[in-house]
Structures are given as structure tokens and as C-alpha cells.
Amino acid sequence: xxxxxxxxxxxxxxxxxxxxxxxxxxxxxxxxxxxxxxxxxxxxxxxxxxxxxxxxxxxxxxxxxxxxxxxxxxxxxxxxxxxxxxxxxxxxxxxxxxxxxxxxxxxxxxxxxxxxxxxxxxxxxxxxxxxxxxxxxxxxxxxxxxxxxxxxxxxxxxxxxxxxxxxxxxxxxxxxxxxxxxxxxxxxxxxxxxxxxxxxxxxxxxxxxxxxxxxxxxxxxxxxxxxxxxxxxxxxxxxxxxxxxxxxxxxxxxxxxxxxxxxxxxxxxxxxxxxxxxxxxxxxxxxxxxxxxxxxxxxxxxxxxxxxxxxxxxxxxxxxxxxxxxxxxxxxxxxxxxxxxxxxxxxxxxxxxxxxxxxxxxxxxxxxxxxxxxxxxxxxxxxxxxxxxxxxxxxxxxxxxxxxxxxxxxxxxxxxxxxxxxxxxxxxxxx
Length: 431
Fold this sequence. Notes:
alpha/beta, 17% strand, single chain, disordered N terminus
């Protein structure tokens, strides 16, 4: 396919000057990440290697250039160290890989890359702002670099901000859900780069929900920063694949094209599991929350609390007015890291605890339908405008209010999913 071949050619071109390898395959730490150390054979290691860790592939592209970086707290690379002195039949050639991570900006600066400025998405460069909170421009205290917010006064880098930039680097961890705003930031960065004829280098990262495609397809009249394109709620693409789709489907203004170079993942397929080393945002603290997020994220458009104001964000839901006789679980949201003003703050909420269930990598309407059926005042359940932005359509609210079952609702969007999958196939890099 044309776009697969395009990526392959780009990687081969980079390899000629930097040994690229083709691929098919604090507060913010993830709480249930893997053990701190693991031992693996250097030559037989099949773990996923992210684009950012393949420095030899992209350093030649950045050398001698004035570089802008789009990054946040997830933009880290794993630092690998080799143990010396292990010389026997079992240990020869082994390396110890530690969960010590370094920010991509710090890494590039150490490698004498001329970073001029950093652009940060929702939640900010260090990832500490609330969802939807405006983020101000500033300076990074560690590096002294200027930081320009893409979730404040501007969603898109300005022409003035790009004046002294030769190439942009995009390295942000997405979670594969349409209303997760990093793909909207990607759109605006691509558009700004295309307008200034600035090439964009994308360091690809896995999609932890990349094994499936599901949910209603966004209707264009409901486009917003929570969903800009006609894609399902769960799109099943990596950030690199999605960038190709933005270009290929002419979604940028006036059909302009961004000059893309993608450093693909190694040892990755869409069925791969991936444990994120850092919270992708303040209220996604672990793998369980990331898995449940597509389903529980719809509560953001209702009067139900989805765990914000607790340490189990997107692993529980509840409200003071849900039926106490139906729900045995209760909790009280309080102001905390990532949620300064959670719904129903300091009030006992009745609902469900999903933190210990075996969460399937799939999308379900079970939780939102159940809570709607057990609320005391159904007329106040939906925040209509906000729910529609999350759902991408008015139909989902109407279907739930009409008493449709989850299966009936899901059947109604199968045609849209089938059409999308045909488009999606053109831009896939991985099996």
C-alpha cells in the first residue's frame, strides 16, 4: 500500500545516514508498571522499541537544524545499560534494562541538538494541569527552554513561533480514544508545519488500545477539539498511522500536506500489549484506567463522577443520586492532583468499583446505561452539549434515553465502522 511504502522508504533513507532499522513489528509514574529491572538477551529481545529510543535513525535528520519539539511528560526514552563482568554460558551477551527514563528534550540536548523551543499539549509540559485547564506559556526550569502552550490562547503554533524552526519533532503518547485531545494537537501541529513548509518528524509510540476499533463515528457537525475528524470513538491507530490518515484524507485546511517522516516502532503489532512507564495524563494513573477509559470517558459528558478526585480515576463511577439499593460501593471525591474541582467534591457517591476487575481491551456501554437506569432524575443525567462532543453524535444520548440495549446501539454504528476500517487500512504501518 502506498502509505506503508512511503514510511518504509523514509526509514530506508534515514538508515543510509544513521543505521535505521525497518519495523513491522514522581507523581506521574504509572503505578502498576512492570518490575524495575529485567534481564534479556541483547540479540533476541522482542520487547517493543519506541521511535524515540531509535536515536541513530533520526539524529542525522536533526543535526545542524533549529529544532522545535512537541512534547509532554510522556516523551521519555528508556536508558539502557550493559552489565560488565557476566561471562559464562548463560549470561554472555546479556544486558540489564532498567526502568530509568530520560525526557526526549534532555536526551537531545545532551546529543548537541539545537532545540529552540518546546510546545506542550493539554495538561502542560510536565503533565500537571487539570483536564480542560488552560495552560500558560513559560520556561522549563530544568533546561531554560521557552515553552509554548497548545492548550491555552493557541491550539496551533503561530507563524511567529515557528519563525526560527527548521524541523519539528512530535513525541507524545496517545491512548487511542477520539476525545483524548493529543490527536487534535497533532492535527494543528501538522497544519502549522504545512503552512510554513516545515518538515515534521514523528517518533511513533504504541497505542495501548490499538487492538480494536469501536464506537460511533463522529459526525462532522459535531467537530470540536474533543474530536475533529470522522473517526470512531476508538480508532485503533498509532500516532504515526493517524498522522498519515490526516494527510491522506486531506483533513488539513485547504487540503495542504505536511512533510512527514515517521520513525516506526520495532516489534509492535496492533495486538501487542504495552505498559506505559508514565501517566499519559494526570487522571490515567495505571493500565487499568487506560483500558477502561474509552468506556468510562463518556461519563465526562454526564453528571456522574468517573473517579476524579480519588486515586482510582476511570476505575470507578458514582454520584450522590445513584440508587443506593442497586450499588453497594461508595466513595467521596476530594480535591487532589489532577482534579482541583472534581464532580460531587466532598460528597458521598454511590456507584461501582472497577479497579480490581479483569478489564477487557474493548469498549462497552454497560456502565453508562446502568448508571442512567439507576439515577434519580434522568432529565439531569446528560450534559447535552458536552456528551455530544464526547460521543460525536446526538444519536447515542437519544438511544440511551429511548431504552435501547447496548447490543442494539452497537448494531446501529456497524456500517460506519466498516467504512472507517477500509479507510484505516490504507494508513496502517503495523499488522
